[in-house]
Amino acid sequence: MELQLLQQGAEARVYSGRFQTRACVVKERFSRSYRHPTLDTKLRQKRTAQEVRSMMKCRKHGIATPSVFFVENEKCRIYMENLVTCHKLRDVINRCQRDGNATELLAIAVTIGEMVAKMHDIDVIHGDLTTSNFMIDSNTQQLKAIDFGLSSQSSMPEEKGVDLYVLERCFLSTHPNTEDLFQLILDTYKKESKNSASVIAKLDQVRLRGRKRTMVG
Length: 217
Ligand SMILES: Nc1ncnc2c1ncn2[C@@H]1O[C@H](COP(=O)(O)OP(=O)(O)OP(=O)(O)O)[C@@H](O)[C@H]1O
Ligand SMILES: [Mg+2]
Prior knowledge:
Elements: E1 4-8, E2 12-19, E3 22-29, H1 37-60, E4 68-72, E5 77-81, E6 86-88, H2 89-99, H3 102-121, E7 124-125, E8 134-137, E9 143-145, E10 152-153, H4 157-174, H5 179-192, H6 196-216
Antiparallel strand pairs: 1-2, 2-3, 3-5, 4-5, 6-8, 7-10, 8-9
Helix pairs in contact: 3-5, 4-6
The chain binds adenosine-5'-triphosphate and magnesium ion (MG).
């Protein structure tokens, strides 16, 4: 199969290719030479399995993620649906801000809040909620979540709070003037998620910790 490199990350390479007749993306966790070889393989296989597990669990509960076609565990490769009609959320937000499209931005914020609430209600912690790890279908405007490489399974409000904190940091650092937009994400999350009160309380604690750390360091 011919693979074309799309993105080289710190832990994984993402290629586009074909799986049988379908356009696919292959995500491969490559070995890191600074780790002990046996440990390295184990760790990569564990992350690959966890990524697949979270994606499938999300899909099962109606959260849009690429469908998984095939997993090559020994090679730490996931063959998944290529979201060819989607754009990165980061780019969509930038375009909306440039064009002054407030309506679309508000709709996006509500959808993100709903999606993260749903994820947390099934105890999936994404682990890397950034605007590069969401995509939006340019035909249907549907929001999709990708990159579950750092995901985990937990019912702890603390971990959900940290998940939200990562998203907040991403918004405030990569998208200027999005305080109100992020607040709308949070308000939607509060409305939609079952244990939002304890999660938001944890988020407040994590924020405080973050601030103290920057004051000291
Ligand atoms: N299923 C997909 N369809 C289309 N594009 C994809 C798909 N999966 C990933 N991509 C593209 O490749 C980029 C990198 O993928 P991903 O975020 O999964 O890897 P990463 O950030 O390098 O991974 P990690 O954080 O696990 O090291 C995405 O931002 C997106 O542009
Ligand atoms: Mg990513």
